[in-house]
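Reading is simple: each integer encodes one residue's backbone shape. The lines below illustrate:
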Amino acid sequence: MRVTVFGATGAIGRHVVQQLLDDGHHVTALVRSPAKLSLTHPDLTLITGQLSDRTALTEAVTGADAVISALGPSLKRSSTGTPLADGSRALVAVMAEQTVTRFIGLATPSLADPRDKPHWKHKVLPVMAKAMFPNALRELTAMTEAVTSSDLDYTIGRITNPTNKPATGRIRAGFLGHDKIGSAMTRADIAAFLVSQLTDTRYQRAMPAISN
């Protein structure tokens, strides 16, 4: 497949790019600083730009079979503005223009899926996020709404505690109150889940919680 990746230079995005290339996909990544990826491969195309650049967005998405986003808002309390939310709305519009329908991304259980049952994470995580990372929560909420309110065929994996431990290969996915989902998950396994959704149809237009 031809897969466009956003957030490719981040801790999860790097794993996504590498796993896609290892699986034989062609990857196009929109990056602000290509040198940060420190990866070369004949099936990797880097486009320099950012989410606010509509021309770069269009170039990155054109011809793609799917988009994987490993973007996440800044957790700095000093952060202001909504660049990722604005960029997500622009990305959704460009995907519609280019008739690219498959979107795979990330959020947290601070945001509920309609399939969830009442769960402590719905009560605790939003309060913690609002107190500690208010702008990040606003960004994440708006980013997610931009996708879920669109006609895109999306899957958004909700993560709680990403770690840098080695991949385990053990991935749990489901909905809070229904399925046994933990909190910790290695970034390599998060990436593996995202990549697996290219061919897994169980969570289309859904936001499963995921963990090891």
User: Anything to note?
Assistant: The radius of gyration is 16 Å. The chain has six helices and ten strands. The chain has a mean pLDDT of 93.
